[in-house]
Structures are given as C-alpha cells and as structure tokens.
C-alpha cells in the first residue's frame, strides 16, 4: 500500500511554466528569434541548462561558454522577478485539499522537482510547512526520466520506493516515477501522460476516496 506521497512542483502545485515561458521568450527575442508556447512544452520538467541548450538550438545559435553562463543567469533573474510577486492565489485547484488530507492522516509528503527555485516558490505560496522533505534541482546530478530525484525523496522520508506515489505533469516525470518503481499519477492530459498508472486532469477530478483506497490496499 502507498505510505508516502511525492509532488512535482511546476504543473502540479503551481503553474510556474507560464513564468518560465515569459523569461525564455524574452531571451529568445533579445537574441533575435521567436519562442512559442508550443515549443515551451518541451521545457516542462527539464533542467534550466538543458532548456537553454534546446532554446539555442531552436534559434540556431552557437554560444561561447561565457555567453551560455550569462544567459542562464539572465533568464533566472527575469524568472525570479515573476516569482517574487507570487502568492497563495496561484496554488492550483484542490492542491490544499489533498495536502491537508494527507497531513491529517500523518502521511509523509515530499517535493521532487527539477527546479533550483523550489524552496522560495513554496515559501511564496505558503506551502513549505507541508513538506517533510524537499528534493530539487540543487540535490540531483541526473535529470528526469532518471529516477534519482524521487529515490532521494523516498530515502529522505524513510519509505521504500514501492510504497511511494508520485504526482507529475511531465512525460519525463512519469517515466522517472516508473523507473523508481513508484506508483505514477499523471496530472494533465491522459493522452500525453499515457505511461502513468493513473490519470487525472487536475486535483479537482481526484477524490479523497481514491487516495484512501491506495493507502489501504494490500501490497
Ligand atoms: C521545473 C520546470 C522546468 C524548469 C525546471 C528548472 O521543473 O518544469 O520547465 O526548467 O523546473 O527550473 P529552474 O530554472 O527554476 O531551476 P518541475 O520538475 O518542478 O516540473
Ligand atoms: Mg512539472
């Protein structure tokens, strides 16, 4: 049975993808090319460094190491300006309902995110206190679909991977959860996240009975 829950951040708890998009778009425009919302889909769950590599590929730009490092900093500074203005109103629907339910049952909760800005974001939206462990882009060496981020989270919670469940909105994230031998729950388009064990468009469609069921099944 499931005894711990791991949440991805962007796309599951908050929609920071729109701020990542605006910051990447600004950089692309400065470098003289367009960056579309559709292209931004490729950036979900992907590390900042890998995103810049893809962006420069789209623009057909070869960068020196110096340029690359400067653009990484520039993008993040722009992104942080948006984060600065975030508050609890940006928490995605019914996320607090699920977190409160798990808390009240004393179930360990972890964050498993590719972002290096995960802590300040959780602080901004006032959810930091719900998490017993936070594993983010500062803690991992291998990006999703590698299971590292979720395995570290399980270890920090002291729960076996098979007893962990992961909420993810990115294909690479679902694959990472599956690679970690965890139960994967896709939040978003079920056609895109078809590799997940369970699918929901968002948390409003997931009943607390569903969670209760997972926690009480024999396995
Ligand atoms: C998030 C986003 C990605 C972003 C990555 C790194 O991952 O989905 O688009 O590139 O974090 O973010 P940062 O530049 O803040 O380190 P996740 O895993 O929370 O969905
Ligand atoms: Mg995500």
UniProtKB/TrEMBL annotation:
- Quote the EC number: 5.4.2.6
User: Which SUPFAM superfamilies does this entry report, sorted A to Z?
Assistant: HAD-like (SSF56784)
Q: Where does Mg(2+) bind?
A: 8, 10, 168-169
Task: Name the site position(s) for Important for catalytic activity and assists the phosphoryl transfer reaction to Asp8 by balancing charge and orienting the reacting groups.
Answer: 113, 144
Q: What are the record keywords, sorted?
A: Isomerase, Magnesium, Metal-binding
Where substrate binds, per the record, is at: 8-10, 24, 75, 113-117, 144
The protein in question is named Beta-phosphoglucomutase
Which organism does this sequence originate in?
Zobellia amurskyensis
Q: Which gene encodes it?
A: pgmB
């Amino acid at each position: 049975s499931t005894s711990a829950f791991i949440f991805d951040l962007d796309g599951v708890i908050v929609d920071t993808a729109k701020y990542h998009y605006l910051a990447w778009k600004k950089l692309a425009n400065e470098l003289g090319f367009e960056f579309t919302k559709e292209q931004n889909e490729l950036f979900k769950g992907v590390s900042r460094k890998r995103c810049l590599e893809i962006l420069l590929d789209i623009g057909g730009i070869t960068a020196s190491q110096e340029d690359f490092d400067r653009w990484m900093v520039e993008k993040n500074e722009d992104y942080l300006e948006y984060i600065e203005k975030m508050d609890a109103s940006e928490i995605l629907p019914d996320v607090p309902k699920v977190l409160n339910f798990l808390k009240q049952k004393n179930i360990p909760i972890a964050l498993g995110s590719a972002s290096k800005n995960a802590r300040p974001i959780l602080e901004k939206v006032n959810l930091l206190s719900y998490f017993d462990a936070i594993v983010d882009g500062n803690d991992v060496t291998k990006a999703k679909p590698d299971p590292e981020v979720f395995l570290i989270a399980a270890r920090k919670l002291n729960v076996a991977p098979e007893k962990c469940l992961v909420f993810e909105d990115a294909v690479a994230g679902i694959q990472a959860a599956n690679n970690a031998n965890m139960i994967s729950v896709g939040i978003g388009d079920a056609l895109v996240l078809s590799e997940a064990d369970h699918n929901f468009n968002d948390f409003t469609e997931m009943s607390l009975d569903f969670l209760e069921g997972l926690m009480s099944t024999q396995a």
